[in-house]
Amino acid sequence: MIRYSLKRLLSLILSLAVASLVIFFVIEIAPGDPASFMLGINAQPDTVAALRSELGLDQSKFARYADWVGGMVQGDFGTSYTYRTPVAGMISDRLWVSLPLALYALILSTLIAFPAGIYAAARRGKTGDMAVMGATQLGVAVPNFWFAMMLVLIFAINLRWFNAGGFAGWDNGLLAGLHSLTLPAISLALPQAAILARVMRSALLDILGEDFMRTARAKGLSRRQALWRHGLRNALIPVLTIIGLQFSFLLAGAIIIEQVFYLPGLGRLVFQAISARDLIVVESVVMLLVFAVITVNFLVDLAYAAVDPRLRNRT
Amino acid sequence: MSIKSLILAASSALALTAGAAVAKDSIIVAMQLEPPHLDPTSAAAGAIDSVLYSNVFEGLTRFMGDGSVVPGLAASWDISGDGLTYTFNLQAGVTFHDGTTLDAGDVKFSLDRARAEDSTNAQKALFADIADVTVVDAQTVKVTLAEPNGSFLFNLAWGDAVIVAPESIDNIKTNPIGTGAFKFANWMQGDRIDLQKNADYWGTPAVLNSVTFKFISDPTAAFSSVMAEDVDAFIGFPAPENIPQFEADPRFQVLVGSTEGETILSTNNKQAPFDNVLVRQAVAHAIDRQSIIDGAMFGYGTPIGSHFAPHNPAYVDLTGNSAYDPEKAKALLAEAGLADGFATTLHLPPPSYARRGGEIVAAQLAQVGIKAEIINVEWAQWLETVFRGKTFGLTIISHTEPMDIGIYARPEYYFQYDNKGFQELMSDLNATTDPDKRIALMQQAQTIISEDYVNGYLFQLAQLSVAKAGVQGLWSNAPTQATDLTAVSWAD
């Protein structure tokens, strides 16, 4: 197990190194000089040159890459070109919005998906199942920004229960913070819930065909009793995998929702940074997201290996 | 006490509290773009001025809502007979928000910093004529110019010329310390900036106690933030198609004003066939301005025939020079030897005036045989390829700097217009301080570029703002990109 873990760790570090190279150079190749962007169309060439040297842009690409990676290893992500503050601090500020939002959405989607999936599996082929499956089909098909706009129209503009957007800040209390994250979390959660409910249902139905379930039924348990007592625990493995994947998706994929609700999260930071050519911020956030995804995969691999010893000898 | 009087007392108490709630002393103002940082003297971002100009930072002179220039931190000034020496007398008793006193040394520091060799001031050209700044005494500062500059007082009103102090300069990007009626309180990046009333302000104090700027870039989100009454005003509302809805709603007022933004079809004057004035004239006559304004801006915008703001006292209406006449355009093309038309490129930056307007322009050009290939670009890309690289045929952009007709005297500028006569006229204008003579020269300048068809002149960008009905004192025009809230209050 230790050897397997070390091997996995090595490949994780290698992936991160390759990712950092690709991210840095792909973003640097895109046209547009950050300094002339900031100074606009009236700036004189010597002013642009002065700003370039102030930002360190006059160094070679490789020197800047080495600086960036060297700093990141020590937790220093560099200084934003436009905001002129440490990128690490900006990212952690934004994570205080994006992480709770992703978690909130994940909890909501689980709360919706579990009962829906179990209900549908228990009533396979009946009207209830068809209704749940129809609803999830809709949930998968309709984009979440459309949900978001509908929620704003109904609950913010008409009913005035929520603000149309913005973030109250955690300094104003947990409730105020959660209140401003509720509509965004619901719009993120609905499509996720639809996917999760479908996975839950099919996982349960697969389990129902297994030998141990037939044994349980043979011992006199009803279909539903067998599902609750033996099926659910076994069906959780594929469902948890999906939840893990969804979390990193929610963290990275909230860009549009953060635009619709003008939330100061990670997605909005990347959006602003891209349009302002704040390369170092874009590179660092993308790197962080890659790191999150790779690490989650690493942990999932380790968890699988712990559960299933056969996997340890592969690769 | 009878039940009836109890109810009366209760209801009048309620009315009192309701009255107190109406007399608000704070405001939430939304705008599209967030400032990258808070130093107006080292970036071109208009969003920095939008938050800080006049509110937090002040210059020696300042713009008013109608675009006029009035004394600011300089109470008065004397100009020497040769127009080379300006002696400014500073306002007495001005302190910065950190308690330090404003004196002539701060003015010298600010102007020297802006024009220094390693300066990152985006409008360094404003200070190019300054030869020397000397401190006469604590309240007096003398600025000597290398050559006379009739727009010097105007230049000093720009946000890029505000007065800063050496004591607080190091942290200006995150903690701006100015002399204005509001002081900086807090910035939650990505969300809002809070300002507080400056109790020690030297001039007329602000009416409001606190001000919050919110940043909402998405047009749909902008609409819902106003409709849900999350914000009290939206300055520079990004979706003109929603304006009629606000106009019909008694909860809101709509302010329609003018900006300094001349929206033009910039033309590469060095690239064939645009190096032929007949071709440029043909392009000008092929364009129907009103249908561009209607189609792209939902009717908001003023047609222009030269590079000058219609609200300026020196403005001349030259739209007649380039009236919509596709037949004439075709004839001009034939005269230029291009009877079958030609193909060119049309680069369009992100704002909707360019993207939507560009589609209409391309369709109108096609009517006379000019095939303009539309290339959508991001701002950074536009700066790189069009502005610096000059590899383009046509492009659409709004030039928002105030009074910037001087760019036509710079042959290296991206539309590459090289006219010695015009360049001399601009030097004359710079050397002239007499207001009447200046107006005559500016009118001559407008006429020259209009008759040379340097660019296609489309329309002056409108400034659209929506506010709650009770808000008063907002600027409707945008003579500079400021949201001056020093005189804003709520109606009782």
TrEMBL record, chain A:
<protein>
    <submittedName>
        <fullName>ABC transporter permease</fullName>
    </submittedName>
</protein>
<keyword id="KW-0813">Transport</keyword>
<keyword id="KW-0472">Membrane</keyword>
<keyword id="KW-1133">Transmembrane helix</keyword>
<comment type="similarity">
    <text>Belongs to the binding-protein-dependent transport system permease family.</text>
</comment>
<dbReference type="Pfam" id="PF00528">
    <property type="entry name" value="BPD_transp_1"/>
</dbReference>
<feature type="transmembrane region" description="Helical">
    <location>
        <begin position="9"/>
        <end position="30"/>
    </location>
</feature>
<feature type="transmembrane region" description="Helical">
    <location>
        <begin position="174"/>
        <end position="197"/>
    </location>
</feature>
<dbReference type="InterPro" id="IPR045621">
    <property type="entry name" value="BPD_transp_1_N"/>
</dbReference>
<dbReference type="InterPro" id="IPR035906">
    <property type="entry name" value="MetI-like_sf"/>
</dbReference>
<dbReference type="Pfam" id="PF19300">
    <property type="entry name" value="BPD_transp_1_N"/>
</dbReference>
<keyword id="KW-0812">Transmembrane</keyword>
<keyword id="KW-1003">Cell membrane</keyword>
<feature type="domain" description="ABC transmembrane type-1">
    <location>
        <begin position="95"/>
        <end position="300"/>
    </location>
</feature>
<dbReference type="GO" id="GO:0005886">
    <property type="term" value="C:plasma membrane"/>
</dbReference>
<dbReference type="InterPro" id="IPR000515">
    <property type="entry name" value="MetI-like"/>
</dbReference>
<feature type="transmembrane region" description="Helical">
    <location>
        <begin position="235"/>
        <end position="257"/>
    </location>
</feature>
<feature type="transmembrane region" description="Helical">
    <location>
        <begin position="143"/>
        <end position="162"/>
    </location>
</feature>
<dbReference type="GO" id="GO:0071916">
    <property type="term" value="F:dipeptide transmembrane transporter activity"/>
</dbReference>
<feature type="transmembrane region" description="Helical">
    <location>
        <begin position="101"/>
        <end position="122"/>
    </location>
</feature>
<feature type="transmembrane region" description="Helical">
    <location>
        <begin position="285"/>
        <end position="307"/>
    </location>
</feature>
Automatic annotation (TrEMBL), chain B:
<dbReference type="InterPro" id="IPR000914">
    <property type="entry name" value="SBP_5_dom"/>
</dbReference>
<feature type="signal peptide">
    <location>
        <begin position="1"/>
        <end position="23"/>
    </location>
</feature>
<dbReference type="GO" id="GO:0015833">
    <property type="term" value="P:peptide transport"/>
</dbReference>
<dbReference type="InterPro" id="IPR030678">
    <property type="entry name" value="Peptide/Ni-bd"/>
</dbReference>
<dbReference type="GO" id="GO:0030288">
    <property type="term" value="C:outer membrane-bounded periplasmic space"/>
</dbReference>
<dbReference type="GO" id="GO:0043190">
    <property type="term" value="C:ATP-binding cassette (ABC) transporter complex"/>
</dbReference>
<dbReference type="InterPro" id="IPR039424">
    <property type="entry name" value="SBP_5"/>
</dbReference>
<dbReference type="GO" id="GO:1904680">
    <property type="term" value="F:peptide transmembrane transporter activity"/>
</dbReference>
<keyword id="KW-0732">Signal</keyword>
<protein>
    <submittedName>
        <fullName>ABC transporter substrate-binding protein</fullName>
    </submittedName>
</protein>
<comment type="similarity">
    <text>Belongs to the bacterial solute-binding protein 5 family.</text>
</comment>
<dbReference type="Pfam" id="PF00496">
    <property type="entry name" value="SBP_bac_5"/>
</dbReference>
<feature type="domain" description="Solute-binding protein family 5">
    <location>
        <begin position="69"/>
        <end position="390"/>
    </location>
</feature>
